[in-house]
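User: I'm putting together a teaching handout on how multi-component assemblies are represented. Below are the sequence lines for each component of a complex, exactly as they appear in our records. Could you produce the 3D structure of the whole assembly as structure tokens, so the students can see both representations side by side? Please keep the chain order the same as the input.
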Amino acid sequence: MDKFRMIFQFLQSNQESFMNGICGIMALASAQMYSAFDFNCPCLPGYNAAYSAGILLAPPLVLFLLGLVMNNNVSMLAEEWKRPPGRRAKDPAVLRYMFCSMAQRALIAPVVWVAVTLLDGKCFLCAFCTAVPVTALGNGSLAPGLPAPELARLLARVPCPEIYDGDWLLAREVAVRYLRCISQALGWSFVLLTTLLAFVVRSVRPCFTQVAFLKSKYWSHYIDIERKLFDETCTEHAKAFAKVCIQQFFEAMNHDLELGHTHGTLATAPASTAAPTPPDGAEEEREKLRGITDQGTMNRLLTSWHKCKPPLQLGREEPPLMGNGWAGGGPRPPRKEVATYFSKV
Amino acid sequence: MDKFRMLFQHFQSSSESVMNGICLLLAVVTVKLYSSFDFNCPCLARYNALYGLGLLLAPPLALFLCGLLANRQSVVMVEEWRRPAGHRRKDPGIIRYMCSSVLQRALAAPLVWILLALLDGKCFVCAFSNSVDPEKFLDFANMTPSQVQFFLAKVPCKEDELVRNSPARKAVSRYLRCLSQAIGWSVTLLLIIAAFLARCLRPCFDQTGFLQRRYWSNYVDLEQKLFDETCCEHARDFAHRCVLHFFASMQSELQARGLHRDNACRSPEPPAVPEPPEVLDSGSGKAHLRAISSREQVDHLLSTWYSRKPPLDLAASPGLCGGGLSHRAPTFALGTRLSQHTDV
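Assistant: Of course. Below is the structure of the complete assembly, with chains in the same order as your input.
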């Protein structure tokens, strides 16, 4: 446990190595999944290609979608995409940045699966065994004598050593070696291509859009933090709400009991016990409520947060949220806090 | 456990150590990759050379690119290369230094692969079995040239029925393996000697220039990291203030409504003035926001950082950019604030 915690700490120590760590873990998981999977070629002419294509393409798709689903930021992207602009304009560059960074990380596992499948060779062998050039590799003179379906049936059994009966035509080992060699060559070319693409994208980016990149990075990080802080604030509020609610309930119950006990004797009890002084802790809780003390208001607050996010402008008098036009009390001195900051300089 | 902790701390201690750690990790991954890769020579005349040489060269290239990708300093180097000069002039020596350090570290994993392949011998045997001179081996005297070529192509495949248990195959295979290992060890020796000479003789040439370039390239890297951290802190405080403002506006709105409705009679308690944001701030919150409190200001700050980096002179009079640098609150020491990152 200690070891894992330290590895985790090392990976989290800077953002770059954290992302590299996540990519490494997903690559390992994908490779492990492949080695645990029991490949089972059907060795029948029509089915080989379909099975192999399925194994080559379906798990990468599943892994890609899984990578997107497991990333917490997908819901953040969807929220930011679908929210009404309200008082805060939407920036498509930020959405694009968020989508690109998520897609890049989700693509690691599928790429590793495809690479490992090609480098292993079983899938390719299963798919293309019927396309082997028999004339070049085996007894070329005997091949034209066979009808095509018979040849196909014979060659389809190449991946299955226990039922292969075509040694007179083509040695199984020769065909297997040939196809695996091509599969491995394709696999390495694929790996080379993807690393080249990743390298070009990463190195060439600072040459073109560095400012836009800095802005998008900042604002997408901001959106993430803002969402988390809003959730934290709501949780604090909910806690305070619950505490005050329960306290009020107990006080009311206490008050009812007292009324019940003294009903016969002191009918004017309410005057003294009407407003029992709440304990000191309750004042702090009420402050945390920030004046939002009922369900309807809280619901309106949450709706307003989604429909009409506040503008990215601090230190300015906020116009009314509900839009009823009433400006409230005199404007608080808007520049006071800004002047305080400048005075530090 | 203590050993691991010390190891991790050592690797985290400076950006160079982090890069060395990643380089080492990549070398270990290369060894694992090579040992788990299932070598499969096609044993066909034209394909052997392609496969053997391809396997000797393509994976090292991919590993080299991976080494460049995994190294953060390559991006920092390109950014430093492409930035506009602004208030801070560019020093090509720094960029050259960073480039050479990045390349040296990225070359480690490919070299490990090539050396492993040569010392193991399978690649070499597969690639050059057809190029062997049959005159050297007596067993080929009775065969026609095309038969010889066919036989030689099968040499890398031990289990093939044509060459199974054939002394000629073993002779050719041994010869090629010996050659491969000789080349492998020679390359290793050459590399070690070159590295040793480079390291020993470097202080003889331009040592001060080297020290300066090392310092400033380290500085550029740290500055970039610290800028990212400061942006994160700023975003956090900005978000905090924004959320609290939102709650406060809701509260003042309610009170305004409350006052408006109960205009005639006094409300039971005086409306609590919503706490002005000053109270919500701690001292550190103010320091982090630094008067950058709107979207336009943040965008302007980021584009100025790119297009006009501040001069490397802390005592200069504070201009638009200089002010930010000379009044950075000393709340972080260089190299020790590597925590609290949230990922996007």
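A couple of points students might notice: The longest helix of chain B spans residues 207-261. Chain B touches chain A through 98 residues (CB under 8 Å).
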